[in-house]
Amino acid sequence: MIPTLNRVNELERLLQSFLYQTQKPDEIIIVEQGDEHLSTIGLKHHNTLPIHIYNVDFESLTKARNFGVEKSSGDIIGFLDDDIVLTKNYVENIKRFFSSHPGTLGVQGVITNFRQGHTKKVGGNPFVYSLYNVFAKFFLLNNSSDKNRLLWSGRNQYASKVNKIMNCEWLSGIGNYHRRVFDEFTFDEFLDGYALGEDKLFSYPISEKYQKSLCVDPEIQCEHHHAPLGRPQDKKWVEMKIYYTYYLWSKLFKKRGFFAYLAFFWASVGDLFIVFFSVILFQNTFKFLWWHIICYAKLLFGKHI
Predict the structure, then answer these.
(1) Residue 41 above 60 pLDDT?
(2) Domain range for residue 252?
(3) Distance of CA 86 to the CA centre of its chain
(4) What is the number of other CB atoms lying within 10 angstroms of the CB of residue 262?
(5) Quick one: 215 and 189 in the same domain?
(6) What integer is the mean pLDDT of 168-191?
(7) Could you tell me if 210 and 244 lie in one domain?
(8) Looking at the structure, do residues 126 and 267 belong to the same domain, yes or no?
(9) What separation in angstroms does the CA of 84 have from each of 161, 247, 248?
(10) pTM of the model
């Protein structure tokens, strides 16, 4: 199931990787939220892949995922971003995993270019990225690890260093689930637009209720190419990062009391600290830091969106 928003070239590249799969999926559902008005005739691979396209009149990743689930018919429902490229045995390994782990409710694979993609986000310097990861772990911010965990700060650890099948607490946007999961859980449509954190809000409650029901399998592999089109930029990105993280924390961890509040506060201080040093190192502008200060101040005084 592929939500997309005006990214025809990236979508074509993803579909190209489906052509070379050792096993094809039973259906590929594309939910186009933009003004491209896709049709199977307009896609190069419509004759060789089981593509179903739905053009919708909203721009919401969570609504698109829920809509796609309603239109799907398979027992296993997998999600992909449109800027993903699959290895040739991606679908086969998903089917193999569920066949050999019938009690598991969900699985995701690994992103083989994760480190390269996130190094690019901090200016392309591997040392700067490694340094960021050290500070991020110290301040309970998003960081790279050997498992998918949610922290009491509302931030996460992402499984980028996996060499065997492991249980995890949440699945990313490349998660695959048994259909029965959707009898009980849906994506939170309060998160509008790009909907940062929607994967955690959806999957973490599954692992809370059904212990050890989610896994990461390193044999399921893909690349993520982080297309800039369709992502919030500048001030809108900062607002979404801070407010949506606060929303996630409020729904999942606020109920845990004092230590959860302390963790969120500590991570917020750490975020400002790291942004400040990114300005000092000329990775970002002072305006970028100011946007962070304003957003956190609004949280402090209860005036956030």
Answers:
(1) no
(2) 234-300
(3) 16
(4) 13
(5) yes
(6) 96
(7) no
(8) no
(9) 19, 27, 25
(10) 0.93
Q: Rounded to an integer, what distance in angstroms lies between the CA atom of residue 11 and that of residue 30?
A: 9
Q: Is residue 92 part of a domain?
A: yes
Backbone angles phi, psi at 143, to 5 degrees: -150, 160
Residues 6 or more apart in contact with residue 41 via CB below 8 angstroms: none
* Helix, strand, coil abundance in the chain, percent, nearest 5: 45, 15, 40
Q: What CA–CA distance (Å, rounded) separates 254 from 36?
A: 40
pLDDT at 228: 82
Question: Hey, how many other C-beta atoms are within 10 angstroms of the C-beta on 301?
Answer: 8
Query: Is residue 240 a contact partner of residue 196, using CB atoms and an 8 Å limit?
Result: yes
4-17 burial, b if ≥16 CB within 10 A, otherwise e? Answer: bbbbbebbebbbeb
* Digit-coded pLDDT (tens) for 100-157: 999 999 999 999 998 888 887 777 788 888 888 999 999 999 999 888 999 999 999 9
Q: Please choose, from the candidates 99, 82, 79, 93, the residue with its C-alpha nearest in 3D space to the C-alpha of residue 6.
A: 82
- 201 pLDDT higher than 70: yes
199 vs 197: CA distance, rounded Å: 5
Q: Mention every residue, 6+ apart, whose C-beta is less than 8 A from residue 6.
A: 34, 35, 36, 229, 230
With helix as H, strand as E and coil as C, how does 10-29 read? HHHHHHHHHHCCCCCCCCEE
The two tokens of residue 24 are: 């094809």
